[in-house]
Amino acid sequence: EAYLAERRALTSLKHLVDRSYEVIGLWQIICESGFESSVDQMDPVQKDRMRYMKFKDLVINGHEVCSGLISALMNCYLEDSSSTDAISERLRQLCPSLYSSDDAVCTKAGELLTLAKKTVNKAEQTHLLKDALQCYRQVTHQINLELICSILESVRFYEGVVELALYAAHRRDPQGHALHFYKNGESPGDVQGQEAMIARHQCYKCITDCLQRLLAIRQSSAQSPSLPSRPGPPPTPDPNALTPIDAEKYMELTLTLALSSGDELWHVSLYQWLIDNALTDRLLEIKSVHLEAYLKHKTAAQYPNDLKMLDLLWRHYEKTKNYAAAARILSKLAERESGDVSLVQRLEYLSRAIMSAKSSNLRTSSSKEGEFLHELEEKLEVARIQSQVYEALSRRHASRPSPHLQDALNQLNNRLVDVTTLYGEYADLFSLAECKLAIVHCAGHYEPTLIETLWREIIDKELKESSSSSPSDRIALISSKMVALGRTYVHSERYFPLGALVLILERYSAELDWDPTWVFMTMLEIGIPFPVLHGIYDRMFKAKDPCWQAINKPLHVLEVIYHLLTKYLDTPSLMAPYER
Fold first, then answer.
1. pLDDT band for position 305 (cuts 50, 70, 90)
2. Which example biological process does GO assign this protein (predicted)?
3. What distances in angstroms separate CA 347 from CA 310, 370, 485, one per listed residue?
4. Interhelix angle 122-138/145-154, nearest 10 degrees
5. Does position 157 have pLDDT exceeding 90, yes or no?
6. What is the mean pLDDT of residues 438-451?
7. What is the DSSP secondary structure assignment for residue 136, as one 8-state letter?
8. Share of the chain above pLDDT 90, in %
9. Cα separations (Å) of 537 from 482, 519, 540, 580?
């Protein structure tokens, strides 16, 4: 034990002697090189500390001050554009623990960088910058990465910024703990992964900060000129300042260089930067396996409500012609129960989903994809009726606001509902006959009495709402409504009971003493063939319905037939020659 204690004491003594020798050697070099000029380059805080330090303090606790002296000495050489090779070699010989081989590499890199900044010849400058970059790559663990990258950026060596920052990120996390941390949900318990992630992000930030500055310059062209801060002629523009066009060029160059990296976490940081700066179109131009992985990660279970990411994911799938996947994402967005997606957007999503599904079917003939397309088309049909119900309730709410209506509107806007719910809880509850007709037609539900009742309700509603208008205006309104609906249902005879509709309209026309031609003119406008229309009126006349006597218009149908035939005589083209 005594032997070990004595050995430790001798080792400490040797260390003290060596350190004293090195400090004296450093002091000698400083004095030979110009003490005052070197000290003037020191940090003011370190300079004040050194002023009150004894030699003992400088040896035992003065490593930081010694490092400051060395840095100041090197700055003197760099300012004089002198080579640092000789002084570096001497420092390495006299004080190796104060000035390590890594310090020498840093000094050399700084010298090359300083020379590059002063060099006019572009090829020579690039050569110096690449040499400096190689030096910095060797000592990424001890350099001020942010400062070095900003210097490289100032000489427009963006390739160096990207390469150095990404290499430093790798050196700070060689085992890939940060990627494991990211892919496993960023658990707070994974301290090692968290620290690695922070270290990497500090490196990545050097590149994104550079891109941010380029983006700001690029966008400055779109801004209006600012007011001068003082009177007189405008200041002379800096010839070395980047123009928006240059910034655009360098930004694209930097992005291209950055995207060539295989560092997945860097891609994640870059993608997020593009999204944060509303550069999603540029994001979707990226062809990388990491992009899909990133978007899928963002839309996974821990980010289920990230609408922006889901939008980007389907757009990415469309861009890469993965139409089946795009269609399923769009369908998911349409069915999303949330207030952040409006009913209009849901219709758009379903329409795009159908387009994508059709494109997918052109590329593959899978029966499963065909079934999915059919489901989408059915959903879109129901969603359109839901939109019709929503618009009808919106009009009613605008004229007679009520909390009940507002609740119904919110529910319809926040989710897609099935036809049964749409009919029972909305269309029927709020007496929306037109919407109910659309629903039974969509569902293929055929009940003649119900359909005739719905048509009667539609007509009665139009008559009631136009009661204060003149007869000609009322005819125009009802005719317009019948034409609009008739053209929708005319090819579905079960949902357009022509005979019943003509009878209903003619009875109202007779009761109100309206123009006897308007009903058949409306039907002709809908597209009902003249022979069909003539047959209906013929049967109506022969039926001798007592309703005409009841309203004191026994010859009304005959009068209408007269005008109908007159119309034919005036326009023979209403009937084909072979039908006459």
1. low
2. mRNA transport
3. 16, 20, 21
4. 170
5. yes
6. 94
7. H
8. 59
9. 18, 11, 5, 17
Q: Select from 210, 204, 211, 214 the least CA-distant residue to 263.
A: 204
Helix (H, G, I), strand (E, B) or coil at 169: helix
Count the neighbouring beta carbons within 10 Å of the beta carbon of residue 323.
23
Q: Check whether 101 has a pLDDT greater than 90.
A: no
If residue 258 lies in a helix (H) or strand (E), which one and from where to where? helix 244-259
CA nearest neighbour of 90 among 16, 30, 46: 30
Residue in the structure block whose two tokens are 């890469």: 320
All residues at 6 or more sequence positions from 296 whose CB lies less than 8 Å from its CB, including other chains: 313
Residues 6+ apart with CB under 8 A from 235: none
Q: Distance between CA 388 and CA 404 in Å, rounded?
A: 18
Neighbours of 317 (CB within 10 A): 21
Spell out the domain ranges in the chain: 144-219+242-303, 306-445, 458-579
Token duo for residue 291: 């992009």
What are the tokens at 373?
């397309």
Top pLDDT among 580 and 426 is at 426
Range name among 29-43, 148-162, 504-518 with the lowest pLDDT average: 29-43
Lowest-confidence segment of 32-36, 406-410, 506-510, 540-544 by average pLDDT: 32-36
* 173 neighbors 264 (Cβ within 8 angstroms): no
Residue 197's nearest CA partner among 208, 211, 187, 209 is 187
E-state strands within 276-343: none
CB neighbour class for 430 (10 Å; exposed up to 12, middle 13-18, buried from 19): middle
DSSP assignment letter at 221: G
AA identity, residue 531: P
Residues 6+ apart with CB under 8 A from 142: 102, 106
Q: Which amino acid is at 163?
A: E
pLDDT digits (tens, 9 = 90+) for 342-383: 999 999 999 999 999 988 876 666 677 788 999 999 999 999
Tokens 């020798």 -> residue: 21
∠ at Cα 380 (378, 381), nearest 5°?
A: 65
**CATH fold label, 144-219+242-303:** 1.25.40
Listed residue (72, 63, 81) closest to 44, CA to CA? 72
Q: Could you give the CA distance from residue 254 to residue 313 in angstroms, rounded to a whole number?
A: 24
Q: For 237-249, what is the mean pLDDT?
A: 79
Residue 275 has pLDDT above 90, yes or no: yes
One-letter identity of residue 74: M
For 431, residues 6+ apart whose C-beta sits below 8 A from its C-beta are: 457
What residues contact residue 264 under an 8 Å CB cut-off, 6+ apart?
179, 290, 293
CB atoms within 10 A of CB 19: 19
Tokens standing for 477? 């309104």
CA distances from 142 to 101, 102, 147, 154 (A): 12, 8, 12, 21
